[in-house]
Amino acid sequence: MSILEYMTIRFSFSERPGTIPPDLRPVWRIAVLLLILNSSRGKHASLKRLHVLNWAIRTPESRKQFATRMDPQAPQHGATIRFEPGLGRALVLAEAEGLIQITRGATAQLTNRGRQIADEIEACDACLSEERQFMHEVGIHILEKDIDPLLTMESKP
Questions:
Q1: What's the pLDDT tens digit per position in 68-116?
Q2: The pTM is what?
Q3: Contact 69, 152 (CB under 8 A)
Q4: Within a domain: residue 130?
Q5: DSSP strand E in 48-146: where?
Q6: Residues 33-41: what's their mean pLDDT?
Q7: Which value, to the nearest 10 degrees, does the dihedral of the CA atoms of residues 54, 57, 62, 64 take?
Q8: What's the structural domain count of the chain?
Q9: Torsion angle (degrees, nearest 10) of CA 147, 149, 152, 154
Q10: Residue numbers of the domain that contains 147
Q11: Which is more confident, 95 or 142?
Q12: DSSP letter string, 62-127
């Protein structure tokens, strides 16, 4: 006899939408984009820099790999920086919301509204704590001149 024959309460199953991991949600991506720009000199950054920091900030593992890539004494293998389409969508949405401006020189810059929201994220202790800590540690220290070598660096044994 199966267990279903012992049950006296009727039940049914309903298909529900699957959850989306936080790093794929547009709101998370836009908030991270604002944090990156807010931690950048002049509140602007090249699209290359945004892609590198967007990759680095996503997970504890990518943050560790980024730290290794930035250390000239460490072996430079095992970390592939990925340009994600999700960042492109976040840039378009953020620009449509008036949070950033994208210039002809392939840079993104915070608008006044974007700065205000970025400051609110920074002030909220419960919001993006790991991401904020990472950007405080590396944000302003990673210069545009540091980005191209990261993207062209060949693996060293």
A1: 888 777 665 556 777 888 899 999 999 999 999 998 878 999 999 999 9
A2: 0.78
A3: no
A4: yes
A5: 100-102, 107-110
A6: 93
A7: 140
A8: 1
A9: -130
A10: 23-152
A11: 95
A12: HHHHHHHHH-TTS---S------HHHHHHHHHHHHTTSEEE-TTSEEEE-HHHHHHHHHHHH-TTS
Residue 17 inside a domain? The answer is no
Place of tokens 């693996």: 155
- Residue 81 belongs to a domain: yes
Instruction: Give the whole-number percent of the chain exceeding pLDDT 70.
Output: 89
- Residue with token string 């547009």: 26
So what's the pLDDT on residue 155?
A: 44
- Candidates 104, 106, 72, 73; CA nearest to 88 is 106
d(CA 129, CA 122): 9
Structure tokens at 63: 């943050």
